[in-house]
Amino acid sequence: MTHRDRFEAVYDAYYPAIHQYAARRTGSPDDTADVISETFLTAWRRIDDVPEGEEALLWLYGVARRVLANQQRGASRRAGLAERLRAELAADRPVRPVELEHVRAAFDELPERDREVLALACWEGLTSERIAKVVGCTAIAARTRLRRARKRLAAALERQASLTIAMGEA
Fold it and tell me: How far apart are CA 154 and CA 121, in angstroms?
C-alpha cells in the first residue's frame, strides 16, 4: 500500500470521529475545519508513524488535542465547553434551565486538565486506557485523573447547589 493509499484509508475511516472531536471543542465551524486540516496534515506528514487499526484513531485524537491546545493557547474555552455540556445534558434528559446553569458553572470551575478527561470520557466515550493514549499518560494515571476530576466536579456541583439555596433560587 502506498503512502497515499494509507493516508486515504486513515482519512476515510476516521474523519467523522475527528470532526466530531474538533466540533465539540471549538467555537465555530471555521475553527473546527482548522483543527481537522492540521490534524490530517500531520497525519499525512507522519503517515509512517500512524498506528494500524483503531490505534490510529487514538493517535489522531492525540494530534487533534495538541492542535487544539496550540490553536487556543491563551484563549478561554470555558464558554464553548459549557454550551456543549448543556447541549449534551439536554439531549440525554429534560433538565430545568437552572440546573443547567449550575452544571455549567461547576464545569467551568474545573481546571482545563479535568475538563479534558471528563470530556474524553463523557463526550467521546473513551475508556481510561484510551484516554491515557490521547493525553499521553499511563492507564493508571488516566483512571486517577478521571476519578479526581469526577470528585472535583461533584464538589463544584455541591458548591453551586449551596450557593443557589443561600441566594433563595432553589
Answer: 16
Determine the Cα–Cα distance for residues 169 and 12; give it in Å rounded to an integer: 50
**Whether the predicted pLDDT of 105 surpasses 90:** no
Gap between the Cα atoms of 88 and 14, Å rounded: 22
Work out the pLDDT band at 170, boundaries 50, 70, 90: very low
Place of cell 497525519: 43
The domain 3-72 is classified under which CATH number: 1.10.1740.10, 1.10.1020.10, 3.40.50.2300, 1.10.260.40? 1.10.1740.10
pTM for this model (two decimals): 0.56
The three cell numbers of residue 103 are 452544571
Domain topology for 78-167: Arc Repressor Mutant, subunit A (1.10.10)
Please report the pLDDT score of residue 15 as a whole number: 97
Residue 101 in this model has a pLDDT that exceeds 90: no
